[in-house]
Each structure stands twice: as structure tokens, then as C-alpha cells.
Amino acid sequence: MSVECNGTIETALDILVGKWKPVILFHIFDKGTLRFSELQRLIPKVTKKMLTTQLRELEHHDIINRKIYAQIPPKVEYSITEYGKGLMPLLVSMHEWGLTHLQHLDELYAAKQLENDK
What is 8-86's CATH number? Predict the structure, then answer.
């Protein structure tokens, strides 16, 4: 397959690169609109600062929407934008490939164990 990139793959990766961005997006796609605290509970290993940074970057690229409610304590909700919905097939493919890869690694490990047991 011969495809010219001309920076398009790099552009897509710039938007999605980051350990937490695909995870954040997957949760928002799965659950719909989520508050910051809900995202923190769903992704317990992410720091508050990193979650904020990743959300701001996704918002900057019009992938997610941030809605701030003027109340005390402050309430902020995140949802996917119409434009961001175009990423859904990519995220589903990444999820499916990840599952397949984990199974592949399990098979490799089992085969090596059999080889070592001989």
C-alpha cells in the first residue's frame, strides 16, 4: 500500500498522543457527558494536573466540549463535540486491536513456556 502522509499522520498523533487522551475519550464516548470528578474516578492513576492538561488539549482541538456552571462549588462537564465523534471508529479499532494484541502476547508467552518446558 502506497500512501503519502504529508504530515497527516503526525497531525492525528499530535491530537491523540498522550497516555490518557484515548482513555479519556473512550470514557466520554462510553458514558456521555462526564464531570471532572467522574473522570478522575474512572481513571484513578491520572493526576489532577495531567487530566486537566489532556482535557484542555482535547478542547483546544474541538474534540471535546467543556461546559462550566456558575455555581459554588464549581461544576464542569465534558462531552464529545460533533467534530470529535469522527474519532469513534478509530478508538474502537484501537480498542479491538489492543485486545487482539494482548491475546497474541498471551499465546506467545504460552508457546515460549512450552518450549522452555521441553
Answer: 1.10.10.10
Domain residue spans of the chain: 8-86
Going through the chain in order, the beta strands assigned E by DSSP cover 34-35, 64-69, 75-80
- Among 5, 15, 2, which Cα is nearest to 90's? 15
**Which residues 6+ apart lie within 8 Å of 84 measured at CB?**
25, 58, 62, 63, 64
Does this model's pTM top 0.70?
yes
Quote the cell numbers at residue 95.
Answer: 480498542
Sheet holding 64-69, edge to edge: 34-35, 75-80, 64-69
The whole-angstrom separation of Cα 40 and Cα 18 is: 16
pLDDT mean for each 10 residues of the chain (118 residues):
66 81 93 95 96 95 94 92 93 90 92 81
Angle at CA of residue 36, ends 30 and 38, nearest 5°:
55
